[in-house]
Amino acid sequence: MPDTNIATLQSVYAPITQAARCLDAWLAEDGHSLSPRQRQRASALIARYFENEESVSDELILSFLRHYGGFGVVDLDDPQSVRQSLKDVLDRRQPRKDVYPLRILLAITMLCLTAIVMVYYLSLPITLAQQKELREAVASHAAEKQVSPVSVWADIKSNLGVRRYADIKRSYYDDALQMLGKKQGL
Predict the structure, then answer these.
(1) HSE-up of residue 110 (Cα within 13 Å, Cβ side)
(2) Backbone angles phi, psi at 125, to 5 degrees
(3) Which own/partner contact pairs does 164-167 have at CB distance under 8 Å and 24+ positions apart?
(4) For 24-72, what is each residue's pLDDT tens digit?
(5) Residue 19 phi, psi (nearest 5)
(6) pLDDT of residue 185
(7) What is the C-alpha separation between 157 and 164, in angstroms, rounded?
(8) Which pick of 18, 24, 71, 174 has the fewest CB atoms within 10 Å?
(9) 3-state helix/strand/coil string of the chain
(10) pTM to 2 decimal places
(11) Which residues contact 141 (CB under 8 A, 6 or more apart)?
């Protein structure tokens, strides 16, 4: 009789032992671990899950664990398994993260920075060399027209809204030269 009790116990614990063996293999494969208590509980639950299955193989349990772990092992001969795997994959979809808004924001930022730099550059006063060139152009124009350089300068500064050569902005420098050119007939 004791042999039958041992055989009965072995048959009762065989699914749990098999589940524990497969769980250990899967955990090692996955690079994870469980505490002994969690391992024992998981083994019992796996054995219970497969209780009504006929001839449960290690491969079936490992396939289940891999599928559960996200490895995506699918029985391609089983339409329900394929359908479930497809559902799982499609359920993980996320809203598309377009790069275009980021590119647009970057382009707008670059455009604004360029505009700021241009406005800053054009709002700077003319250089000393440009002042000298403008004074020479005013003197040259006054000599050709036989008028006072002060009267030529007064005309230019009233049109530009400045008081001194140093007050002329770089953006108006070409306009000042053009005024002298127009007066010269260019």
Answers:
(1) 6
(2) -70, 160
(3) 165/126, 165/131, 165/134, 165/135, 166/125, 166/126, 166/131, 167/125
(4) 888 888 788 888 888 888 888 888 877 777 778 888 888 777 777 666 5
(5) -60, -40
(6) 40
(7) 8
(8) 174
(9) CHHHHHHHHHHHHHHHHHHHHHHHHHHHHHCCCCCHHHHHHHHHHHHHHCCCCCCCCHHHHHHHHHHHCCCCCCCCCCHHHHHHHHHHHHHCCCCCCCCHHHHHHHHHHHHHHHHHHHHHHHHCECCHHHHHHHHHHHHHHHHHHCCCHHHHHHHHHHHHCCCCHHHCEHHHHHHHHHHHHHHCCC
(10) 0.37
(11) 152, 180, 183, 184
Neighbour-count burial of 71, counting CB atoms closer than 10 A to its CB (0-12 exposed, 13-18 middle, 19+ buried) = middle
Count of beta carbons in the 10 Å neighbourhood of residue 56: 20
Mean pLDDT along residues 147-164: 89
Integer Cα distance of 142 and 183 in angstroms: 10
64 CB contacts (<8 Å, ≥6 apart)? 46, 49, 50
